[in-house]
Request: fold
Amino acid sequence: MSQTLLEVGAIVKSAREVWDGPGYIVLQDDVIEDIGRGEYPGSRAGMTVVKRPHRVAIPGLVNTHGHAAMTLLRGAGDDLPLMTWLTERVFPMEAKLTEDAIYWGTLLACWEMIRSGTTCFTDMYMSMHKAAAAVEESGMRAVLSWGMVGLDETSARSGIRNSESFVGAWHRQAGGRITVTLGPHAPYTCPPDYLQQVAELAGRLAVPIQIHLSETRTEVDDCLRLYNRTPIAHAASCGLFEHPVLAAHCVHVTDEDIEIMRANDVHVAHNPQSNLKLASGIAPVPSMTQAGLIVGLGTDGAASNNNLDMFEELRLAATLHKAVAFDASILPAAQAFQMATEDGAKAVFLPAGSGTLEKGAAADVTLLDLRSPHLIPTHSLLSNVVYAAGADDVTDVFVAGRALLSNREPQTIDTERVEYEARRIAQALSQ
Ligand SMILES: [Zn+2]
Reply:
């Protein structure tokens, strides 16, 4: 048994409960064993004591959508619409990605996410056993899927085979930090019979599904033309929603789509920055949350963002929808914070309590420097975290009770080596 006592200057337990004064958190193995205000009243014997009197503890941020090793494609194709970007820039470079590249690209993503306060992320990509190895090594929590594309018989079959073996090898592994889901890419890359096969496989393996849905207007128009249904209605008709589903984007959804998602408890990953950069549009998040949908925040891959900084998504989510609705109260700071933490954790199927600092929750904690000039003074701690804090304020990160970042120093990643390998691989990709 290992016990860490965190002594901090303030605690945001959840979007509902903020303690603006000293407090403590006891991390025992991988859960929060105790949390309280003021001094820890018990014995410190046998505990690792971490004193951070000028830091605020928040639940670790949850990135609900991304493609980790796309860090290697960062900046390789900007200012293009989704389909041109995919076919002319992304797919040709991805064809050159080796297993080695996936491993180093994922580690680079883990380094970047740990540095910016993210404790759990979602990934849909290729050679995923290498991505899982990087996750295991980094100490992060992750929800991983092997991207499935069914445009031809060979790729369709290998998608099923790879996913099946990936579930067998990595689901609930790395001390329970890794969850495996199925990852059918999208309705425009997975024909209906393939989506049906994926749905059956999800049932047989008892794992959730993550998929891109209704990302662009073109996708919706094509789906209506081909199947006479919206992508959401189409996914439902293929049986996907009979299983737990995390749908990324949902930018172009109708009221009927939202009702289908509500009736089937479909979770949503909102990726405001990626949707803006690819000119896809703005998801009707207030309508979705008002309908009762679970909506988390995500960065998407670093090729369409171009970083994995969840603080940017948090602030963007909290500001963007106000301007769309001409209503400053439509998505308040507390709700945005909940999307980045507790609702994000629910969206990616983590156990109840995850994404909060409640007793019994997973010991995933991020500390921010309260003495950063832009966090002074403190009229509202939550407001400062949502509207003023940034990745550079992150000083310490714990996942499952283990320190992955300590006083801004990564503890699990050889950052010099990762930098060297990422630059080497990127050079080969661009040749
Ligand atoms: Zn994506």
Remarks:
- DSSP finds 15 helices and 17 strands in the chain.
- Residues 61-347 form a domain with the TIM Barrel fold (CATH 3.20.20.140).
